[in-house]
Amino acid sequence: PLKWAYNNELLSVDLSRGWVMYKCQYKKRVILTMEMARNVFRVDWGNDMARLASMLSMCTGMRCGEILALTADELGDNYINVRHSYNFKDGLKSTKNGEARIVYVYYPYIMEQLRKFALCNPHDTGAGFIFWGKLPDKPIDCNVFRKFFRRALVKAGMNEADAKQLTFHAWRHFYTTYMADKVNQRALMSQ
User: How far apart are CA 143 and CA 52, in angstroms?
Assistant: First the structure.
């Protein structure tokens, strides 16, 4: 904009002269292999909530904030009505694109576990989060998911340095990578 303003004689001095433009080089995204995904769920995680959250994201592509925001009333027979997201700065909010969506879960075990955690919520007057935390109106901290995910990766055979490169969002990348050749692009984007 400063270069444009100078060229259009809105500024008498080119304030952008001599600036070095920032050029970012992105690291290649690490996508878990199917074998590693299987192995990571064969080890003891030490935290059942983190394990279930990872399993849910792996099978649906749901974002961490969407999982944190889940309440029992959003669970159907074999689907989840994803209407909200949660982060500790903004609290409960709309999804990233502002649109609710239905996410189908074809694994009865996952749906049973989600209902179980909803029933185990110790906060009678809280928000009813499935992944409840220490305070009634807040879910568990998302860092717990990442911490136990990385520990499970190491237990499953990944070296610690590589495990530290992965965040919970790696499940979303895993899901889209392995679903890309199984469904059409539009259906995948809707999920």
Answer: 14
Angle between helices 170-179 and 48-60 (to 10 degrees): 30
Please list the alpha-helical segments (H only) found in 44-96.
Answer: 48-60, 64-68
Maximum Cα interatomic distance, the chain, rounded to a whole number of Å: 68
Model confidence at 92: pLDDT above 60: yes
Q: Which two tokens stand for residue 89?
A: 């700065």
Check residue 184 and give its pLDDT. Answer: 58
pTM of the prediction? Answer: 0.81
Sign of CA dihedral 143, 144, 147, 148: negative
Q: Which residues contact 189 (CB under 8 A, 6 or more apart)?
A: none
Structure tokens given for 187:
């259906």
- Lowest average pLDDT, out of 5-9, 84-88, 101-105, 143-147, goes to 5-9
Whole-Å CA distances, 127 to 52, 111, 140, 159: 20, 20, 12, 38
Residue with tokens 């064969």: 42
Kind and range of the H or E run holding 145: helix 142-155
* C-alpha–C-alpha distance, residues 12 and 15, integer Å: 9
Number of residues in the chain? 191
